[in-house]
Amino acid sequence: MAKKLSKVPVVVVGMGWAGGIISAELTKAGINVVGLERGKERSTADYFMGHDELRYQHRTELMQDLAKETITHRNSPDQRALPMRRYGTFIIGDGVGGAGSHWNGQTYRFLPYDFEIKTMTEKKYGKGKIKSDMPIQDWGITYDELEPYYDTFEKMAGTSGETVELYGKRKNDYPTGPMKKTPTLEVFEAATKNLGYKPYMVSSGNLSESYTNPDGIARGACQYCAYCENFGCEYGAKADPVVTVLPVAQKTGKLDLRTHANVLKVTKNSTKATGVIYVDTMTGIEYEQPADVVVVASYVFNNAKLLLTSGLGEAYNPKTGKGTVGKNYCYQVSSGWSTALFDNQEFNTYAGAGALGMEIPEYTGDHFDHKNLDFIHGAGIRMFQYGNRPIANNVVPEGTPNWGPEFKKASIKYANSWLKVASQGASMPHINNYLDLDPTYKDEYGMPILRMTYDYTDQDKALVKYMAKVTNKIAKEMGADHIITAGEQGPFNVNKDTNTHNTGGVIMGADRETSVLNSYLQMWDVDNVFVVGASAFPHNSCFNPTGTLGALSYRAAEGIEKYLKDGGSLVKVK
């Protein structure tokens, strides 16, 4: 029997970017918030001199323990799903800050095209352009409506960048200038300019200069130490909930942050959510936390799982197309890249940062003609200088033996003599790509674990073939002596594919028949539940999701304030 606690106005499940932004905005408005995080407390002190590739990159210390809770995966509904036992295709953060502590910092806005993708595609190419097995829909909000929230997120994070003409209009420039343009990036810049493209420095959550945000949070500039993704930032230069929004919420005295608190379900009566049940993972004691509003902000997979295990909303059925919870799970398409190797040229690739990069905009969204193509949307063609660490850095030309003296010789020769022209493609929904509860496997608390049914589609494969030609052309223009190009997209492999951008499953939209949430990320069916995060995306763009997640989180916080002020009802969408 769970121990019942005193009722609070708002309980937030998950203390990453979404939960941190919600907590900061509500507590600044004078609203008491209980924040529940299943992992431990974290601070920059935890990462001092923590440049340990084995510990963080390969043994994934900041991530969820897959021995206690994982997901199952299958490529199609007619297969048996099996548990994911080691991290490969994505990594799930654990602890205060969540994925916001171990991300790279790449901070994009989605395109105006993304938010009205169905309308714009059909208007330009006709209704037949979108295949019947792709349940693409508009988001229920436009870019122009979301732009002020993007601006708020960027000012809070101190995002460093430069304006790109082809993208949506901006009210303000980025609060800090772009990161350093290194000699490595200048190679990409020169090649793409020679080909007629307009390369730009990628917008970054790694500060290019010292910055104080509107909340008075001061942070120092990036040191280009090369330890960003899978690592916490010891300098606080990388935008992280732990050094931005959470200190603001804690300073108000209105945030009750409880760590080691794993939420098992959302409780409800006939019409409303009444709170949550969580277990203290240190003692094993279960608690019931009643609340007027429940905010589920616990990453894509757990957001969907909590709704499904709690009986909130109708589960998606791929056979009938009915139901919305679990629908439109999307990923991203990372093949199509080309690696350029140079026989007589070396680069200082040991230094870098998670968002130190350049990109060309010409192949994003609908910025090129899709009339005679077998896919819609596009890809970001980019080069990043993350900083090559020794364990994972082992690139050799094709045809080199996989072991032995020749392999060792080539590994040493090309250690600092290769550059990657990457392609990150958009992911469109498919009727057979979805999330539900596994009927066989359970977690350590006896709850069903989440099952992912997902594979790359014909749309994805066509996009990869097209983008591979672009990246190969750029690699040639860079003067490469050897080029390795990933020109074919094979089946999805949960243990190998390397993009970490999971989206969908609890999607937003303009009506309850095709979506779970309105544009304030409020559930249509249970109006005192807000589900915040990339789980709300009806499809995934070709850009990293954090900037859009942050913007939607600020809008959701505004919706929660309206809900509490107005006495409880569906928030009127503006």
From TrEMBL:
UniProt keyword terms in alphabetical order: FAD, Flavoprotein, Oxidoreductase
Source species, domain of life: Bacteria
Annotated GO MF terms: flavin adenine dinucleotide binding; oxidoreductase activity, acting on CH-OH group of donors
InterPro entries reported in the protein's UniProt record: FAD/NAD-bd_sf, GMC_OxRdtase_N, GMC_OxRtase_C
Domain Glucose-methanol-choline oxidoreductase C-terminal: from-to ranges: 430-552
Domain Glucose-methanol-choline oxidoreductase N-terminal: 220-330
Protein family (similarity comment): Belongs to the GMC oxidoreductase family.
PANTHER family: LONG-CHAIN-ALCOHOL OXIDASE
Protein name as it appears in the record: Gluconate 2-dehydrogenase (Acceptor)
Species the sequence originates in: Viridibacillus arenosi FSL R5-213
